[in-house]
Specification:
Blueprint lengths: L26 H19 L10 E10 L2 E3 L2 E4 L3 E12 L3 E12 L9 E15 L2 E11 L8 E12 L4 E10 L5 E15 L2 E12 L1 H8 L5 E14 L4 E12 L2 H5 L7 E12 L1
Antiparallel strand pairs: 1-4, 1-14, 2-3, 4-5, 5-6, 6-7, 7-8, 8-9, 9-10, 10-11, 11-12, 12-13, 13-14
Length: 282
């Protein structure tokens, strides 16, 4: 069964570019996100009525990737480890709250962070579906331990549609960074998940993004709106048991706009990324 697309949380996060200021985070943003997180966790821990059908699910993934690339930017072209844990609480038949923590661990000293976490992101979200339509909205707080970079926060909304007969799924998302960037990023994705043999499936996807002038200025130092990147990906997933899966995949990334290409080294205008993953459902 093809999953409805949702914002990727395992391989799509980055540190702020060096052209951003390096001061302490805005206190009100941290307080807002902390309060939102506490409210969400409290709802997870609250005792459920005896007649309630709500349940809590925990998913963990451990990704070992050759590079760290996010929205067209090569953050680290050396191997990285990217663990992620998601806690989901169902709310009725079609909706759910989720909290995710994601990290990037550098094995090399590309940013003075050898054998350290250089990024930890926190995401709180709510999603629901109606037939073939799926919707998700949430807030992502990006932090950068062991670096001088300032934390920042995005809010987002994502809509997906699934053609079950093909199978094919489409998603569109809009992200707004209201802290450091004050800009918008639009993302689109087309994906298909194909069963190959029992327990083995292949997912192929095409995705891309568009940044407004403020977004591109913050991350590329280019002050005009444009299409940013295009990604082609293929992932094989083998379900070893009912709760443990292994995955191997590759991505090809290319910047789309000439001015963005001119803003980065030639070697970073296109990039290949490979990942091996262990996925555990509790």
């Amino acid at each position: 069964m093809l999953r409805k697309p949702s914002p990727d949380r395992k391989r799509d996060r980055k540190r702020l570019r060096p052209n951003r200021t390096k001061n302490s985070p805005v206190p009100c943003v941290h307080k807002f996100f902390l309060l939102s997180t506490l409210v969400f966790i409290s709802s997870l821990l609250a005792p459920l009525p005896v007649f309630s059908t709500e349940k809590i699910e925990v998913n963990a993934s451990f990704d070992f990737c050759t590079d760290y690339v996010w929205r067209g930017l090569v953050i680290n072209d050396d191997p990285v480890f990217q663990p992620s844990v998601t806690v989901t609480k169902a709310t009725g038949q079609t909706g759910s709250f989720a909290f995710n923590i994601w990290g990037n661990y550098d094995f090399t000293d590309a940013y003075g962070t050898k054998n350290k976490f250089s990024e930890i992101d926190l995401t709180a979200s709510y999603s629901f579906s109606s037939g073939s339509l799926g919707f998700e909205t949430g807030i992502i707080h990006y932090t950068f331990p062991n670096t001088d970079y300032r934390a920042t926060t995005e809010i987002y909304i994502n809509a997906g549609y699934e053609l079950k007969a093909i199978p094919l799924a489409f998603s569109l998302g809009i992200y707004y960074d209201f802290n450091e960037i004050d800009g918008f990023f639009l993302s689109g994705k087309i994906a298909s998940q194909i069963p190959l043999i029992p327990r083995l499936s292949l997912e192929v996807a095409l995705s891309g993004g568009y940044g407004d002038a403020r977004y591109n200025r913050g991350y590329f130092n280019v002050s005009n709106p444009s299409f940013v990147d295009i990604h082609l990906s293929a992932d094989l997933t083998y379900k070893m048991t009912g709760s443990v899966s292994l995955a191997a995949g590759g991505q090809y990334m290319s910047l789309m706009d000439r001015t963005l290409k001119d803003a980065v080294p030639r070697s970073e205008r296109t990039h290949l990324i490979g990942c091996l993953s262990v996925i555990i459902d509790f």
